[in-house]
Structures
1.
Amino acid sequence: MKATMQDVPLNVSALFEHGRTVHPDSVVVHYDDTTVTERTFDAVGDDVVRLANALRDIGVGPGDVVATLCWNTPAHLAAYFAVPSIGAVLHTLNLRLHRDQLGYIVEHAGDRVIIVDSTLVDTLAAVGELGRLSGVEHVIVVGTATPRLPAAIRVHRYADLLDAASAEIEWPVVDETTAAALCYTSGTTGNPKGVAYSHRSMYLHTLQISTGSAFGFSDADRVFPIVPMFHANAWGWPHAAWVAGSDIVLGDRHLRVDHLARVITELRPTATAAVPTLWTGLDTYARENVVDYSSLRLAVSGGSPLSASLVRKLADHGVTLTQGWGMTETSPLLTFSRSEPGTSPEDAVTRQAMTGHIVPGVRARVVGDDGAELPWDGESVGEIQLRGATITGGYVGSDGADAFDDGWLRTGDLGVIARGGWIAIKDRLKDGIKSGGEWISTVELEAALSEHPDVAEVAVFGVADPKWEERPLACVVAKPGAVLDQNELVAFLSERVARWWLPERWAFLPEIPKTTVGKMDKRQLRSWHEDGTIEV
Amino acid sequence: MKATMQDVPLNVSALFEHGRTVHPDSVVVHYDDTTVTERTFDAVGDDVVRLANALRDIGVGPGDVVATLCWNTPAHLAAYFAVPSIGAVLHTLNLRLHRDQLGYIVEHAGDRVIIVDSTLVDTLAAVGELGRLSGVEHVIVVGTATPRLPAAIRVHRYADLLDAASAEIEWPVVDETTAAALCYTSGTTGNPKGVAYSHRSMYLHTLQISTGSAFGFSDADRVFPIVPMFHANAWGWPHAAWVAGSDIVLGDRHLRVDHLARVITELRPTATAAVPTLWTGLDTYARENVVDYSSLRLAVSGGSPLSASLVRKLADHGVTLTQGWGMTETSPLLTFSRSEPGTSPEDAVTRQAMTGHIVPGVRARVVGDDGAELPWDGESVGEIQLRGATITGGYVGSDGADAFDDGWLRTGDLGVIARGGWIAIKDRLKDGIKSGGEWISTVELEAALSEHPDVAEVAVFGVADPKWEERPLACVVAKPGAVLDQNELVAFLSERVARWWLPERWAFLPEIPKTTVGKMDKRQLRSWHEDGTIEV
């Protein structure tokens, strides 16, 4: 039987028009240094239409790639909606990438236009000096800076373009499977890989994370996405908050903890999302300064594993820290760790520090070495694999076949799934240590060691062992003034992990090397171990 | 540019599997008379799989229509998921229809199988006696009753079928535009018209109503859909609650107010939805009996206009009554009247009594007599028209062309849209009174007259007038023992509506005639006026 429902595609322009027309009086608050600017969705919506027309005026058409090199600003928010709504593709450049990688992805994505913040024109100029802006025809500067760029590139001022553009538009009906936005993964190996979100996936992701099972934003919320908008769609928060009519607080380039604490205290957001490092900083800051985190009904940690000890620390300030897990490849939200009602306080902490349980629209499975699906028993460790309309099925310009297993995305993460779809990540597949046929989790060893009062940083990786195939090597950095002792650390660990997990190999380093995006560089550590730089 | 996202269809089976696997320990509570039965989603999920296999065992295949003639029961819930998940079409029969109409829709939809409650076998038998079950091959009885049916129909017991069926299934991948479910409108004119929801529309509607902008269900909720499951998918609450892992309370056939008050008091639901008549009853009952409505975070009224006075009455019991507006043609939810934060208490009452503002995924416009779109100013009255993936674009077996305007569904409702997408319905288009070129709202006249302490029922409709073209005629029913006076009613009204709205024509009746589904039958009133039965 044929259904009778209307054939209406799921488009980003529909998300935009909903927020603009149903929540015209909600506000976007831009906090730049000490200046707070507040504008209604109505006014910001006007900018979106003008930007869309301005892009058309300089020749942007369906399928053209328009990149942003921007912090969390109203102009970036306008680009989030304007670019896909005219059928073009928004490419959010990760400004923390090395200029070589930036150049690579600008060329690989075929960026024709780049919208850049005044504070980032030098970053863009550095890419230009490498000769990697060859396909770029237009640069639009938000603010007053003048970039040094190859002469062939036409430079525009954002404000001037908008002033000259029409405030009226009829959005095109875009096939929902068309690309709407583009993010590149910051892979620790090889070149970054591009994920092209469709209009359909962005629309569905917005609804999925807007459910009561996830963030459940409404017009009673004031959403402060600390997570940068160049990183995995800022977890989809700008889209979801816009559709819900939540006020949106944008903190520009300011990620210092004192600044964030002040924004939370003064602007009283109900929801915020940040990496564990920033939550650690917000905890420390609040122990020495007067802050008010009481407005937060939703405090989400993501990007790296969250420890139970950090959950407990934030609880001292009345903040219930929860965890979201996602990937660039997955729009990004996969799981969210809100505790079920009736959970005991200590269980709740454990739950909150888990990756969380699967949000509507996502399917997950755990697959063993032999390719067979493992049970959801919370014990069976295997690779977590994902399927759904918000999960990528390939990469730009490559099918990335080895990243998929019968249509399911291989996350490269080792983990377990417990009853009720609670996922706990144990390790990166490539970092997991298989000792005597069983997995040792470097993530859990690192988390346990991090709780030692004298440990500043720790990285664990597997090294060859004649008897067990692999055994863990722990690289530890002492806090300033502290002296670490291997026997004491082993004793400390032995109360926290299984006996056979205890490392026999230890290295004490002045610091852990980092990748360009600030993640621990275990590849570097491995090569230092191989060439003898690390003595054990 | 081609997007890289996975091509995964939006299927009812995905909604089912999410709730079953992510929320296995949530419960379905069945309240039948004084017996409360509680079963986990895990156990109910098992029934769904067995029912799906049982239907296949008796020969049900993709596209076959499986009807239900059921109250709000676990078996009905199982059918909600089992039937569409195997690619068949669920047809929820409105058991309140006259047997002629039931026979018409059973034949029109081509029902092959009917699942019937034991308490409703006589209703089904009556349709059989009309010879209108000719296409029905199987009847599945939930419970122990034995229906008198034509000999050609095979009769099965629900419990026996499930016992014999396998508990393992692999769901087919169903094209998302395929029909998943079928509801017939209870039109006051002509034959009922069928709306066939697609898998896509049911999936999207579930997400839409699950957002924080609408009901925002989570596993902290306990959802009690008083609204019958044969009526417009019970507003989509069973699907949304299942996906969210909310406990689901099913009240079977018991719609008496004392029963409902007891369920709310004893089972402590967080959310419930019912028609204004029942809310009026719940108010009255609570004034004379000890009840506890304090568990309700969400108390939704729908199906008929909600008056501000009823909102105020429920507020006396601590219940914040909100309004949802929907139609069979629209999945159904269109608008929801949750007040924005910072609204004054009296404004909040006004808002709560409005139809509400548009939920994500729905587009609305208001169109004047000349076919031009009117502004969202809260003043310009025109027909409300709708567009979206959860809105029907036709009717089963007919394009219903006059029900559409350039792809938009014509609701047949006269209303206004205010800033922020707040819709207020003023009248049915066919009921609206055009007096001297301006609209008079019968809905508002009826609401104002209902507030008079001696008025039990009221119906207003337009009659021809030599000077103004049309003028309102008010038909009023007095409360038992009360005597109504026309002059007093006019004086009462004149403080509440514009002077030119005041009816000159009044009729005092013993009761207002009703349609088979309990709506005021204005067609009957008009004919009584024409043939002189009503004397003015």
2.
Amino acid sequence: MSEGIKIATIGGGSSYTPELVDGFIKRYDKLPVRELWLVDIEEGKHKLEIVGNLARRMVEKAGLPMKIYTTLDRREALKGADFVTTQLRVGLLDARIKDERIPLSHGMLGQETNGAGGLFKGLRTIPVILDICKDMDELCKDAWLVNFTNPVGMIMEAVNRYSGRKKAIGLCNVPIDMQKAIARMLNRPLEEVYITFGGLNHMVFVTGVYVDGRDVMEEVIDLWGNQSVKNIKGIEWNKGFLKQLGVIPCSYHRYYFMGKEYLEEAIEHYKENGTRAEKVKKIEEELFELYKDVNLKEKPKQLEQRGGAYYSDAACNLICSIYNDTRDIQVVNTVNRGVLDELEYDEVAEMNCIITKNGPVPVSVGKLPKAVNGLLQQIKSFEIAGAKAAVTGDYDKALLAMMINPLVFSQSHAITVLDELLEAHKEYLPQFYRKQ
Amino acid sequence: MSEGIKIATIGGGSSYTPELVDGFIKRYDKLPVRELWLVDIEEGKHKLEIVGNLARRMVEKAGLPMKIYTTLDRREALKGADFVTTQLRVGLLDARIKDERIPLSHGMLGQETNGAGGLFKGLRTIPVILDICKDMDELCKDAWLVNFTNPVGMIMEAVNRYSGRKKAIGLCNVPIDMQKAIARMLNRPLEEVYITFGGLNHMVFVTGVYVDGRDVMEEVIDLWGNQSVKNIKGIEWNKGFLKQLGVIPCSYHRYYFMGKEYLEEAIEHYKENGTRAEKVKKIEEELFELYKDVNLKEKPKQLEQRGGAYYSDAACNLICSIYNDTRDIQVVNTVNRGVLDELEYDEVAEMNCIITKNGPVPVSVGKLPKAVNGLLQQIKSFEIAGAKAAVTGDYDKALLAMMINPLVFSQSHAITVLDELLEAHKEYLPQFYRKQ
Amino acid sequence: MSEGIKIATIGGGSSYTPELVDGFIKRYDKLPVRELWLVDIEEGKHKLEIVGNLARRMVEKAGLPMKIYTTLDRREALKGADFVTTQLRVGLLDARIKDERIPLSHGMLGQETNGAGGLFKGLRTIPVILDICKDMDELCKDAWLVNFTNPVGMIMEAVNRYSGRKKAIGLCNVPIDMQKAIARMLNRPLEEVYITFGGLNHMVFVTGVYVDGRDVMEEVIDLWGNQSVKNIKGIEWNKGFLKQLGVIPCSYHRYYFMGKEYLEEAIEHYKENGTRAEKVKKIEEELFELYKDVNLKEKPKQLEQRGGAYYSDAACNLICSIYNDTRDIQVVNTVNRGVLDELEYDEVAEMNCIITKNGPVPVSVGKLPKAVNGLLQQIKSFEIAGAKAAVTGDYDKALLAMMINPLVFSQSHAITVLDELLEAHKEYLPQFYRKQ
Amino acid sequence: MSEGIKIATIGGGSSYTPELVDGFIKRYDKLPVRELWLVDIEEGKHKLEIVGNLARRMVEKAGLPMKIYTTLDRREALKGADFVTTQLRVGLLDARIKDERIPLSHGMLGQETNGAGGLFKGLRTIPVILDICKDMDELCKDAWLVNFTNPVGMIMEAVNRYSGRKKAIGLCNVPIDMQKAIARMLNRPLEEVYITFGGLNHMVFVTGVYVDGRDVMEEVIDLWGNQSVKNIKGIEWNKGFLKQLGVIPCSYHRYYFMGKEYLEEAIEHYKENGTRAEKVKKIEEELFELYKDVNLKEKPKQLEQRGGAYYSDAACNLICSIYNDTRDIQVVNTVNRGVLDELEYDEVAEMNCIITKNGPVPVSVGKLPKAVNGLLQQIKSFEIAGAKAAVTGDYDKALLAMMINPLVFSQSHAITVLDELLEAHKEYLPQFYRKQ
Ligand SMILES: [Mn+2]
Ligand SMILES: [Mn+2]
Ligand SMILES: [Mn+2]
Ligand SMILES: [Mn+2]
């Protein structure tokens, strides 16, 4: 890293990339990125060039000696990289549309991370990520893999179990969103509130909130109980329930505790508007229209409405802290190392870590209540079963993952939806078809 | 026990009692029961007398010096007892009808043990059982409590946590039914097949099957996958799924893995025939008509169709083994004591035990697969939450139990069903109304 | 086994063999041994023939169709065996003399099982046992290995970790001796006293004693505190200490809790009489003189004074229970399988097991007190380190085993004694010399 | 704390106090201590005044508005304090002399922390510390207790178990000394080396060393193996042993792994020079002569030779980080909270923590090797047994602590030394004499 940092971004043609570039520009003082390699595949070449050109204009405007490369040659990009970020989407948004549509058509929530949809995103993505890990071992052994491709939990568990790579971190914006929401509720700047998170990706809980050395968890639970859900009217966490729970669930927990409500809403919404994926596709097209504008030289405001904001910001923050050994606390996905008693020593968890030059080191976040342990174990075993299915291409292992997923709840639907999704994604799941 | 054994049976007016009496008669050589006290409450007086008289005729016909007492005075019956069996039903079958009807009316499986219905049966029953424990401490300190009232898991967890009583065992006929089914499949007498069970009540798994010192689990899984479900056509366990699981689930697992199928069937059936409880009520009435017949001097054949056969037989077996220190293996509900790694040392589990004069001692049954651990933890935490709600009468604690139950799956329904059931069972849930 | 049982006894020329033969004769009704193969090595040929002839006379007198074979061809003996017992002694008693003498010459207890002496016995024996396991996989895959060669703990841990053999059991007479002593104290026949044992070989504790369904542990501890040690005058367990401990230590625990006393006695005794091994050697010579007598046709009384009585009896009992699937309780060394919470699931422990046709199944024996956990962990890690050193022949690994042994207590002595023993046993430790 | 911080130092008349005062002066910018209350008992009044006056001169010279109070009224000092530090010595150095002399006279290492001497220091000190905790609950509920009185492990375990106080931290200078030594070996400034510590007080291990994001543990172990011990010639850790261990033991580990060597040295040294305590007493007297000098206005150089340097510095650092919520990493004694898998969730450990306004939060430090787990468990159970003996005054519980201590190794000596020390310290152990 002596002559500045080299970053390789796989899936560089993503609409998120301008945020990432913006993040590197803002942090240049502390994080001198000299080379940013945006990598994509043939099908994404057109978008890659649009994004690459916008990035070049942004860097130029900032007056920084950061070089932007666009390439279809992943190995070239990985060579000597210091950090590799992955934001790829195997099968593009069309695949996600199927992930949502097919389950919904059988009255089941697809859920792109911890549901049937998430399983299939995992089955498509894991082989690619493991391939990147193999290349990294050869081309940039000491680099860190920073993954923010979903399903982050299943993918990181796969990296943990099936690649030898220790230097790998998974990222999500759920924790930072919750931190901001809690600080706002308490009318405090973020840095004055100490919050502990523990759990799994999209299954994370706030286990403690402290202000001025005082435990204010009860107060926060009281406020949280009133909060209405952004997208769905009338759905709020019941306060009495939250008090008994003693921890604050994240937004994705609603799929389990309010599954019926969400399902009804999803079906109704689907009838009117199609899937969320279809909506995202439309937004993306609009964004790329914007990106083409040669007068645009910065991250456009509209990007924030895309959802998933702060992802790239979180990635930049993480990379910056590793590079500078700042030892500040961030919430990331990494190997538990004994901190969450509910999980095995070697399982991936999402929790508070201090970020050192040697990577994230988990920090005690207390115990999770027994009442949520069942759900936690279910999702962890789902992640493991999904990862195993992804690397073996074994039908029965994929069926196991479907069956133990708490959103599935039906053997006949598990089989039908599995069969339909395997067929629909055939092209991206060669491991399941080699065997037959 | 020097002058023979005294047994007290709480809920003695139950239609099951003739089977119990029959069991004691058959085992008289090894288990000399001199006094059998059948206890019931005022509302059950009439049935108690019918059953008591049948019991007396049965004993007389057998020519045994076993005295049958019928009484409404529980303390009198407990005095100096050696064994106390509990087969009571707070609120009678009418309460169970509500436990099933109310959830079903909201499209939810009531499930009389591990669902919302089971929670309410627990809330009504636990205070009574804890009361019996208190009386036993005073009147028959060294006696064993043998409970076969459902929900056995929640009740035994309550006894374990909230009474000081160590001498308490919970019983279910699911394991013995599975043992018989497996032996039949293998064309072997029961005693030649060594089967290990581990889990919770109505959430138990066969973890191993051995014949002639050979592990035949794979073979049994293969056979089990084909078995169709007695009551519901077309529902079979998928073989590939079972193979991946590596253990054999019990019949109650279908509520979780085939919840949708079961729910649809239950709703349809309900529309045509009313609840299972209503059907049972009819059968019971017919049984009592039979029992009245002064020429009937033995357990009638029809009792076997009642469901829950072998319960009483299992109870007699257990009592006989304790009395004789036979150290044979039976599957019962008792404190885990480290044998199932998935559960805490002090939690109640259902598993193989050797039955000694000092009670059941758990025997290693291997590990449960990770894929079922989530469900296991969910039900265990449900049992604990239910037990806590039962002793405190706290609304929020009952809500917690509803919310974490995997059959509920909806916050709004959790609240509605909870409220309706609390209202419907008001009379039997004074602990929830004292507070208001 | 259809035509009767074949047993192979490795180290068949041992002075213990007549007890084993006697055991098989006594149990012939239930355990029809048709062939007993006594195997030994060239150096033991003479003794093997003496013992073999005595065995033949014993069988003849009993009038049983049991054939006794003596052979130097181990593979011939293993072919098609149903049970293989190992009672071998690599380097014979002369090696044990060195195991005791060399440590003692540096003021350290050699201790033939859990001390430096035991380590070296393990280093010599483990490769031979693993070799037998390999042969068994080939020649008698389904046979059970019943090992009563010391150090049983370390050897069984080695079999567990470094052979694929699951069908292997370690035996010791300490538990049965303690059972008998306790029953005697309580004036009860053995079968009326229920005793639980937990721990490691030669590091086992009585964790519970029950009579007539009553916990009599306190009473037994009270009696045990007074018991004086057979061989050493004036050494008794302090009652107050035992009460605080809450469990009853075995005789080998004295090496740790009364190390200084034992060491002084051992040094003094050594000066006067030489090592225990030297004394045993003399006794053995006398025994073989007896065995030669063609008029001797049964196990001679003098054998009982040899020490280690009941070992062979325990072995016969175990084999008989496996063969007949009796499911009675015996204390053996096998994989813990979660029963002792203090040990890993897969570590070997000594504890109550039911003996089935599928081998021993551990039974809950309660928790060990925290106060002895340290010692337990130390010995378990010593066993593991010793086993690892034995299979690798790595000097540093052997040094680690020495250093963590609680009887060593000195780095300089650890090194000196290690070096001297490695040199003294060079002939039997090729794995340590190949490397240099 | 709005108007500056109030500190109460119990045992304020200690010779260490000037270092503490110096520490507060140096950090005044970040840690504005307005009141420092030095508390002592009647017997220490003279020294208290000497130290108090020196402190006043130091503050005056620094030109800071920090007020120094000296008092015998502990409650007055505690009232409204923000931090309470404890550096007291019940029975003064004369008691420590007995702690060392009596065991040594029986050929046993007294060892003032984890040996028999440490047990007695604990028995004398724990009741006083628990008394301070009680006063704090009343007079300064939200204050932090910072204890650097030995035996820190046993005392903190007592505070943890027998006071309700959560805000309590134990401190030792061993970790910072090791950190400095390792940084020096690597020729790096302290802040560039990331070191993880895990274990118990005076039983702590370095589990990892990282430089520039690289694991350099092997290199450090290699260097550490050569390091000779300061006070005892010729004693070095064997490199091969350390490599097998995989962690770096602290200096106190030599008492266990080189017990014989240490004991011999201690006995020889004792014959020539008396105990370490006697030497310390002489040094202290010289220090107080210096302190009396009215021209001395700063911490004298000679204090550093006293041993235990950096203790006070560590205390000031800790207090400063809590006050400013700096979230930097320090090694302290606090409740484990799941981070060290080898210890219970609620047991006190010594390990890396981030220091927040809410106190220390443990940070993952990896696993300890199995080979040291036995020793760790032994000392933890010794701490627990000692704490229990201290609060109950029960003779047998004290005997248990003696018996399980790995330095004792003899039942007869355990009893003799226990009896002699109980007699020698009678005055300071009223809890053991009330009962008789
Ligand atoms: Mn996310
Ligand atoms: Mn049942
Ligand atoms: Mn033995
Ligand atoms: Mn210290």
